[in-house]
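To assess whether the prediction recovers the assembly geometry, we first specified each molecular entity separately, as shown.
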Amino acid sequence: MAIIVTLDIMLAKRKMRSKELSEIVGITEQNISLLKSGKVKGIRFDTLEKICEALDCQPADILSYEAENGS
Amino acid sequence: MSADQKSSLSYGRIKKLARYACIFSVLGAIISIGTIAYYTVLMFIDTQAVDAAIREEFVTAGETITINGVSRTLTFIFEITPVLIGIYIFTQAVRLFREYMRGRVFTFESAAKLNKIGWAVAALAPLGILFETLAVLALTMYNPAGQRQLSIGISETEVYAIILGLLLITLAKILHEAAIISEENQAII
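The predicted structure of the complete assembly is given in tokenized form:
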């Protein structure tokens, strides 16, 4: 997928565990794990907002775009 | 009240309504099966009672019917077939409402069950007319020449059934689309 989720890097930078983030954001740890692995089709703006607020970062700090081979 | 709380409340209402609907569907199925069982037993042990029921159902002023083994059996078959369709509708309804009771509302299975119910309800009207016609034909085919009848009747009940059936089929298509959206939503966090 061309959109890379770098949430795990941001969590490591902020020394925050997935469980703690899930409690702050109000979504399950399983969904955080799915998001980290990029196995989701999309992310709601309000979820993104809460994550950015919890990690004190910008959306670009947890999402990046990489052109796929051949495109 | 938050959107999640509203949604939870709505699902609670759906589950409660589905529980009552499921009970009524089970009752409908039991009554239909009981009716078929009752007349099947009567066919073997008390044909006079069956004949009396047939006369009550089909004989109107000045009309003659001939009841013998063949016409009685054919009438029995033609009369129970719509009831069998009714049992199919009730069993599908029970399965559908059980899905709703589990909170599985926007699913492909629910849409498919509603679609089946819709087709069965829509088919009930024309098949009911057809089997009623065949029953009258079976009861008058042993009459003397000139007294045999081919009676076709359509009432507003049949029209209601067709409209209701088509409405359910349309709702099933909408539910199928809703299931696609629901599946997409589940992949978005």
